[in-house]
Amino acid sequence: MAILIDGKKTSQDIKNEIAARVAEIKTEGGKIPHLAAILVGSDGASQTYVGAKVKACHEIGFESTLVRLDETISEEELLAKVEDINANPDIDGLIVQLPLPKHISVEKVTDKIKPDKDVDGFTPSNVGRMALNWPAYVAATPYGIVELLKRYNIETSGKHCVVIGRSHIVGSPMSILMARNGYPGNATVTLTHSRTQNLKEIAQTADILIVALGKPEFVTADMVKPGAVVIDVGIHRVEDASKKSGFRLIGDVKFDEVAEKASAITPVPGGVGPMTIASLLYNTLLAAEKKVYG
Ligand code: NAD
Protein backbone atom coordinates (compact mmCIF):
# COMPACT_ATOMS: atom_id res chain seq x y z
CA MET A 1 0.00 0.00 0.00
CA ALA A 2 1.27 3.44 -0.97
CA ILE A 3 2.30 6.20 1.40
CA LEU A 4 -0.43 8.83 1.45
CA ILE A 5 0.85 12.25 0.40
CA ASP A 6 -1.31 14.36 2.69
CA GLY A 7 -2.06 17.73 1.10
CA LYS A 8 -4.51 18.69 3.79
CA LYS A 9 -1.93 18.42 6.56
CA THR A 10 0.89 19.89 4.45
CA SER A 11 -1.22 22.88 3.42
CA GLN A 12 -2.10 23.48 7.08
CA ASP A 13 1.62 23.34 7.98
CA ILE A 14 2.33 25.94 5.28
CA LYS A 15 -0.52 28.14 6.46
CA ASN A 16 0.81 27.94 10.03
CA GLU A 17 4.28 28.93 8.79
CA ILE A 18 2.83 31.90 6.91
CA ALA A 19 0.70 32.93 9.91
CA ALA A 20 3.82 32.85 12.10
CA ARG A 21 5.60 35.13 9.62
CA VAL A 22 2.62 37.51 9.58
CA ALA A 23 2.75 37.68 13.37
CA GLU A 24 6.46 38.61 13.12
CA ILE A 25 5.73 41.26 10.50
CA LYS A 26 3.11 42.75 12.85
CA THR A 27 5.59 42.86 15.70
CA GLU A 28 8.19 44.47 13.44
CA GLY A 29 5.59 47.06 12.38
CA GLY A 30 5.90 45.92 8.75
CA LYS A 31 3.28 45.80 6.04
CA ILE A 32 0.60 43.13 6.34
CA PRO A 33 0.28 41.17 3.06
CA HIS A 34 -2.83 42.16 1.13
CA LEU A 35 -4.43 40.06 -1.60
CA ALA A 36 -7.08 41.43 -3.97
CA ALA A 37 -9.37 39.13 -5.93
CA ILE A 38 -11.57 40.17 -8.83
CA LEU A 39 -14.68 38.09 -9.40
CA VAL A 40 -16.75 38.79 -12.50
CA GLY A 41 -20.29 37.41 -12.60
CA SER A 42 -21.98 34.93 -10.30
CA ASP A 43 -20.72 31.50 -11.37
CA GLY A 44 -21.25 29.19 -8.37
CA ALA A 45 -17.92 27.37 -8.54
CA SER A 46 -15.99 30.63 -8.98
CA GLN A 47 -17.73 32.14 -5.96
CA THR A 48 -16.80 29.08 -3.90
CA TYR A 49 -13.13 29.25 -4.99
CA VAL A 50 -12.80 32.98 -4.36
CA GLY A 51 -14.65 32.65 -1.05
CA ALA A 52 -12.20 29.97 0.08
CA LYS A 53 -9.23 32.18 -0.87
CA VAL A 54 -10.60 35.19 1.03
CA LYS A 55 -11.39 33.01 4.06
CA ALA A 56 -7.85 31.59 4.02
CA CYS A 57 -6.46 35.16 3.99
CA HIS A 58 -8.40 35.98 7.15
CA GLU A 59 -7.31 32.77 8.87
CA ILE A 60 -3.62 33.56 8.50
CA GLY A 61 -3.86 37.30 9.17
CA PHE A 62 -3.62 38.70 5.62
CA GLU A 63 -5.73 41.59 4.46
CA SER A 64 -7.95 40.90 1.49
CA THR A 65 -10.20 42.81 -0.88
CA LEU A 66 -12.85 41.11 -2.96
CA VAL A 67 -13.92 43.13 -5.99
CA ARG A 68 -17.21 41.81 -7.33
CA LEU A 69 -18.14 42.96 -10.81
CA ASP A 70 -21.27 42.39 -12.81
CA GLU A 71 -20.95 39.95 -15.70
CA THR A 72 -22.05 42.69 -18.11
CA ILE A 73 -18.92 44.73 -17.33
CA SER A 74 -17.03 45.75 -20.48
CA GLU A 75 -13.49 44.62 -21.20
CA GLU A 76 -12.23 48.22 -20.91
CA GLU A 77 -13.86 48.66 -17.52
CA LEU A 78 -12.30 45.45 -16.25
CA LEU A 79 -8.89 46.43 -17.63
CA ALA A 80 -9.25 49.80 -15.88
CA LYS A 81 -10.05 48.03 -12.60
CA VAL A 82 -6.90 45.92 -12.96
CA GLU A 83 -4.91 49.11 -13.63
CA ASP A 84 -6.32 50.68 -10.45
CA ILE A 85 -5.17 47.72 -8.38
CA ASN A 86 -1.80 47.64 -10.15
CA ALA A 87 -1.31 51.24 -9.05
CA ASN A 88 -2.53 50.76 -5.47
CA PRO A 89 0.56 50.48 -3.25
CA ASP A 90 -1.46 48.91 -0.44
CA ILE A 91 -2.26 45.78 -2.50
CA ASP A 92 0.53 43.24 -2.91
CA GLY A 93 -1.13 40.50 -4.95
CA LEU A 94 -3.97 40.42 -7.48
CA ILE A 95 -5.88 37.46 -8.85
CA VAL A 96 -8.64 37.53 -11.44
CA GLN A 97 -10.84 34.49 -11.00
CA LEU A 98 -11.34 32.51 -14.21
CA PRO A 99 -13.38 31.83 -16.27
CA LEU A 100 -14.33 35.31 -17.48
CA PRO A 101 -17.46 36.06 -19.53
CA LYS A 102 -17.01 35.27 -23.24
CA HIS A 103 -16.89 38.94 -24.35
CA ILE A 104 -13.72 39.52 -22.29
CA SER A 105 -10.29 38.40 -23.47
CA VAL A 106 -8.52 36.36 -20.77
CA GLU A 107 -5.21 37.08 -22.53
CA LYS A 108 -5.72 40.86 -22.42
CA VAL A 109 -6.74 40.83 -18.76
CA THR A 110 -3.91 38.50 -17.72
CA ASP A 111 -1.40 40.60 -19.62
CA LYS A 112 -2.64 43.73 -17.85
CA ILE A 113 -1.76 42.40 -14.37
CA LYS A 114 1.50 43.85 -13.14
CA PRO A 115 3.96 40.93 -13.02
CA ASP A 116 5.09 41.82 -9.51
CA LYS A 117 1.50 41.47 -8.25
CA ASP A 118 0.72 38.37 -10.35
CA VAL A 119 0.55 35.89 -7.47
CA ASP A 120 -1.34 33.39 -9.67
CA GLY A 121 1.77 33.22 -11.88
CA PHE A 122 -0.29 33.43 -15.08
CA THR A 123 1.32 36.44 -16.82
CA PRO A 124 3.72 35.81 -19.72
CA SER A 125 6.45 37.43 -17.66
CA ASN A 126 6.13 34.97 -14.77
CA VAL A 127 5.67 31.93 -17.02
CA GLY A 128 8.84 32.97 -18.90
CA ARG A 129 10.79 33.57 -15.70
CA MET A 130 9.71 30.17 -14.39
CA ALA A 131 10.86 28.52 -17.65
CA LEU A 132 14.22 30.29 -17.33
CA ASN A 133 14.52 29.06 -13.73
CA TRP A 134 14.58 32.68 -12.51
CA PRO A 135 12.75 33.83 -9.37
CA ALA A 136 9.07 33.89 -10.38
CA TYR A 137 5.57 33.49 -9.10
CA VAL A 138 4.80 29.90 -10.05
CA ALA A 139 1.15 29.02 -10.70
CA ALA A 140 -0.45 27.80 -7.51
CA THR A 141 -1.35 24.22 -8.47
CA PRO A 142 2.06 23.26 -9.94
CA TYR A 143 3.74 25.07 -7.07
CA GLY A 144 1.67 23.08 -4.59
CA ILE A 145 2.75 19.83 -6.25
CA VAL A 146 6.41 20.86 -6.13
CA GLU A 147 6.03 21.59 -2.42
CA LEU A 148 4.42 18.19 -1.78
CA LEU A 149 7.28 16.42 -3.57
CA LYS A 150 9.78 18.40 -1.49
CA ARG A 151 8.11 17.89 1.85
CA TYR A 152 7.76 14.15 1.22
CA ASN A 153 11.41 13.92 0.05
CA ILE A 154 10.41 12.32 -3.25
CA GLU A 155 13.52 11.68 -5.35
CA THR A 156 13.08 13.25 -8.78
CA SER A 157 16.62 13.44 -10.22
CA GLY A 158 17.07 11.08 -13.18
CA LYS A 159 13.54 9.72 -12.79
CA HIS A 160 11.09 9.42 -15.65
CA CYS A 161 8.20 11.80 -15.02
CA VAL A 162 5.12 11.46 -17.18
CA VAL A 163 2.64 14.35 -17.08
CA ILE A 164 -0.84 13.69 -18.48
CA GLY A 165 -2.49 16.93 -19.71
CA ARG A 166 -0.85 20.07 -21.10
CA SER A 167 -3.04 22.92 -19.81
CA HIS A 168 -1.39 26.29 -19.18
CA ILE A 169 -2.29 26.17 -15.51
CA VAL A 170 -1.22 22.62 -14.62
CA GLY A 171 0.34 20.19 -17.11
CA SER A 172 2.63 22.49 -19.11
CA PRO A 173 4.19 24.33 -16.15
CA MET A 174 4.50 21.03 -14.29
CA SER A 175 6.51 19.54 -17.15
CA ILE A 176 8.86 22.57 -17.13
CA LEU A 177 9.31 22.44 -13.36
CA MET A 178 10.10 18.73 -13.32
CA ALA A 179 12.72 19.11 -16.07
CA ARG A 180 14.53 22.16 -14.69
CA ASN A 181 17.91 21.97 -13.06
CA GLY A 182 17.13 21.87 -9.34
CA TYR A 183 15.10 20.03 -6.76
CA PRO A 184 12.43 18.91 -7.37
CA GLY A 185 13.44 18.59 -11.01
CA ASN A 186 16.20 17.03 -13.06
CA ALA A 187 13.68 14.45 -14.19
CA THR A 188 13.37 13.16 -17.74
CA VAL A 189 9.92 14.42 -18.64
CA THR A 190 7.32 13.18 -21.09
CA LEU A 191 4.39 15.57 -21.55
CA THR A 192 1.34 13.73 -22.88
CA HIS A 193 -2.01 15.07 -24.10
CA SER A 194 -5.16 14.20 -26.01
CA ARG A 195 -3.24 13.42 -29.23
CA THR A 196 -0.66 11.19 -27.56
CA GLN A 197 -0.53 7.65 -28.91
CA ASN A 198 0.15 4.66 -26.63
CA LEU A 199 -0.55 6.68 -23.49
CA LYS A 200 -0.96 3.51 -21.43
CA GLU A 201 2.49 2.19 -22.44
CA ILE A 202 4.10 5.58 -21.75
CA ALA A 203 2.38 5.90 -18.36
CA GLN A 204 3.61 2.42 -17.43
CA THR A 205 7.21 3.66 -17.68
CA ALA A 206 6.69 6.58 -15.27
CA ASP A 207 8.53 6.68 -11.95
CA ILE A 208 6.47 9.80 -11.23
CA LEU A 209 3.05 10.11 -12.83
CA ILE A 210 1.31 13.50 -12.67
CA VAL A 211 -2.27 13.27 -13.83
CA ALA A 212 -4.18 16.42 -14.89
CA LEU A 213 -6.49 15.63 -17.78
CA GLY A 214 -9.86 16.20 -16.15
CA LYS A 215 -11.37 12.73 -16.73
CA PRO A 216 -12.75 10.92 -13.68
CA GLU A 217 -10.77 7.80 -12.67
CA PHE A 218 -9.02 7.69 -16.06
CA VAL A 219 -5.78 6.23 -14.70
CA THR A 220 -6.21 2.61 -13.66
CA ALA A 221 -3.74 0.24 -11.98
CA ASP A 222 -2.72 -1.37 -15.29
CA MET A 223 -1.33 2.02 -16.42
CA VAL A 224 0.96 2.38 -13.40
CA LYS A 225 4.45 1.00 -12.82
CA PRO A 226 4.83 -0.80 -9.47
CA GLY A 227 6.39 1.63 -6.98
CA ALA A 228 5.52 4.78 -8.95
CA VAL A 229 4.69 8.08 -7.25
CA VAL A 230 1.25 9.19 -8.41
CA ILE A 231 0.02 12.79 -8.18
CA ASP A 232 -3.68 13.21 -8.95
CA VAL A 233 -4.71 16.75 -9.86
CA GLY A 234 -8.25 16.01 -11.10
CA ILE A 235 -11.33 16.97 -9.11
CA HIS A 236 -14.81 15.76 -10.00
CA ARG A 237 -18.11 15.74 -8.15
CA VAL A 238 -20.06 12.52 -8.44
CA GLU A 239 -23.49 11.88 -6.99
CA ASP A 240 -23.49 9.88 -3.79
CA ALA A 241 -26.77 9.42 -1.97
CA SER A 242 -24.94 8.14 1.13
CA LYS A 243 -23.38 11.59 1.70
CA LYS A 244 -25.21 14.44 3.39
CA SER A 245 -24.16 16.77 0.57
CA GLY A 246 -25.43 14.28 -2.04
CA PHE A 247 -22.04 14.05 -3.73
CA ARG A 248 -18.43 13.04 -3.21
CA LEU A 249 -15.19 14.07 -4.84
CA ILE A 250 -13.03 11.81 -6.98
CA GLY A 251 -9.89 12.42 -9.02
CA ASP A 252 -8.45 11.50 -12.41
CA VAL A 253 -6.95 8.36 -10.83
CA LYS A 254 -8.78 5.24 -9.69
CA PHE A 255 -7.47 5.65 -6.18
CA ASP A 256 -8.13 2.30 -4.49
CA GLU A 257 -6.51 0.10 -7.12
CA VAL A 258 -3.65 2.48 -7.95
CA ALA A 259 -2.81 2.94 -4.25
CA GLU A 260 -2.19 -0.83 -4.08
CA LYS A 261 0.54 -0.52 -6.70
CA ALA A 262 2.11 2.92 -6.16
CA SER A 263 4.78 3.76 -3.57
CA ALA A 264 3.15 7.13 -2.80
CA ILE A 265 -0.08 8.79 -3.92
CA THR A 266 -2.14 11.93 -3.36
CA PRO A 267 -5.79 11.35 -2.41
CA VAL A 268 -8.79 13.31 -3.70
CA PRO A 269 -9.97 15.17 -1.73
CA GLY A 270 -7.09 16.14 0.55
CA GLY A 271 -4.19 15.96 -1.91
CA VAL A 272 -3.30 18.60 -4.47
CA GLY A 273 -6.49 20.67 -3.94
CA PRO A 274 -5.70 22.19 -0.53
CA MET A 275 -2.13 22.92 -1.63
CA THR A 276 -3.34 25.31 -4.32
CA ILE A 277 -4.64 27.89 -1.83
CA ALA A 278 -1.59 27.50 0.42
CA SER A 279 0.65 28.26 -2.60
CA LEU A 280 -1.35 31.35 -3.49
CA LEU A 281 -0.97 32.62 0.07
CA TYR A 282 2.74 31.90 -0.02
CA ASN A 283 3.13 33.82 -3.30
CA THR A 284 1.27 36.75 -1.70
CA LEU A 285 3.68 36.71 1.24
CA LEU A 286 6.60 36.76 -1.22
CA ALA A 287 4.98 39.70 -3.02
CA ALA A 288 4.50 41.67 0.20
CA GLU A 289 8.11 41.04 1.17
CA LYS A 290 9.37 41.86 -2.35
CA LYS A 291 11.14 38.53 -2.51
CA VAL A 292 10.62 37.77 -6.21
CA TYR A 293 10.90 41.13 -7.97
CA GLY A 294 13.02 42.86 -5.31
P1 NAD B 1 -7.82 21.23 -19.09
O1 NAD B 1 -9.14 20.70 -19.50
O2 NAD B 1 -7.47 22.65 -19.33
O3 NAD B 1 -6.69 20.35 -19.81
C1 NAD B 1 -6.79 18.98 -19.92
C2 NAD B 1 -5.61 18.45 -20.67
O4 NAD B 1 -5.71 17.03 -20.71
C3 NAD B 1 -5.48 18.95 -22.09
O5 NAD B 1 -4.16 19.39 -22.31
C4 NAD B 1 -5.78 17.71 -22.94
O6 NAD B 1 -4.94 17.64 -24.10
C5 NAD B 1 -5.44 16.58 -22.01
N1 NAD B 1 -6.26 15.40 -22.28
C6 NAD B 1 -7.60 15.33 -22.44
N2 NAD B 1 -7.98 14.08 -22.70
C7 NAD B 1 -6.86 13.33 -22.69
C8 NAD B 1 -6.60 11.96 -22.90
N3 NAD B 1 -7.59 11.09 -23.15
N4 NAD B 1 -5.34 11.53 -22.81
C9 NAD B 1 -4.32 12.39 -22.57
N5 NAD B 1 -4.51 13.70 -22.35
C10 NAD B 1 -5.76 14.17 -22.42
O7 NAD B 1 -7.66 20.79 -17.57
P2 NAD B 1 -6.88 21.45 -16.32
O8 NAD B 1 -7.38 22.83 -16.08
O9 NAD B 1 -5.42 21.20 -16.44
O10 NAD B 1 -7.49 20.52 -15.16
C11 NAD B 1 -7.32 19.12 -15.15
C12 NAD B 1 -8.03 18.56 -13.94
O11 NAD B 1 -7.43 19.08 -12.78
C13 NAD B 1 -9.51 18.92 -13.84
O12 NAD B 1 -10.19 17.84 -13.25
C14 NAD B 1 -9.52 20.12 -12.92
O13 NAD B 1 -10.74 20.24 -12.21
C15 NAD B 1 -8.40 19.75 -11.99
N6 NAD B 1 -7.73 20.91 -11.37
C16 NAD B 1 -7.52 20.82 -10.04
C17 NAD B 1 -6.84 21.85 -9.39
C18 NAD B 1 -6.59 21.73 -7.93
O14 NAD B 1 -6.37 22.72 -7.27
N7 NAD B 1 -6.56 20.52 -7.40
C19 NAD B 1 -6.42 22.97 -10.09
C20 NAD B 1 -6.62 23.02 -11.47
C21 NAD B 1 -7.28 21.96 -12.10
From TrEMBL:
Limits of the Tetrahydrofolate dehydrogenase/cyclohydrolase catalytic domain: 5-120
Enzyme Commission numbers on file: 1.5.1.5, 3.5.4.9
Record-level Gene Ontology MF annotations: methenyltetrahydrofolate cyclohydrolase activity; methylenetetrahydrofolate dehydrogenase (NADP+) activity
Pfam families in UniProt: THF_DHG_CYH, THF_DHG_CYH_C
One GO process term, biological-process aspect: methionine biosynthetic process
Binding annotation for NADP(+): G165, R166, S167, I235
Catalytic activity reported: (6R)-5,10-methylene-5,6,7,8-tetrahydrofolate + NADP(+) = (6R)-5,10-methenyltetrahydrofolate + NADPH; (6R)-5,10-methenyltetrahydrofolate + H2O = (6R)-10-formyltetrahydrofolate + H(+)
InterPro entries, sorted: Aminoacid_DH-like_N_sf, NAD(P)-bd_dom_sf, THF_DH/CycHdrlase, THF_DH/CycHdrlase_cat_dom, THF_DH/CycHdrlase_CS, THF_DH/CycHdrlase_NAD-bd_dom
Domain of life per record: Bacteria
Pathway participation: One-carbon metabolism; tetrahydrofolate interconversion
GO cellular component: cytosol
Record keywords: Amino-acid biosynthesis, Histidine biosynthesis, Hydrolase, Methionine biosynthesis, Multifunctional enzyme, NADP, One-carbon metabolism, Oxidoreductase, Purine biosynthesis
Residues in Tetrahydrofolate dehydrogenase/cyclohydrolase NAD(P)-binding domain copies: 140-291
PROSITE patterns reported in the protein's UniProt record: THF_DHG_CYH_1 (PS00766), THF_DHG_CYH_2 (PS00767)
Family to which this protein belongs: Belongs to the tetrahydrofolate dehydrogenase/cyclohydrolase family.
Assembly and oligomerization: Homodimer.
Role, per record: Catalyzes the oxidation of 5,10-methylenetetrahydrofolate to 5,10-methenyltetrahydrofolate and then the hydrolysis of 5,10-methenyltetrahydrofolate to 10-formyltetrahydrofolate.
Name listed for the protein in its UniProt record: Bifunctional protein FolD
Native source species: Algoriphagus ornithinivorans
Gene name of the encoded protein: folD
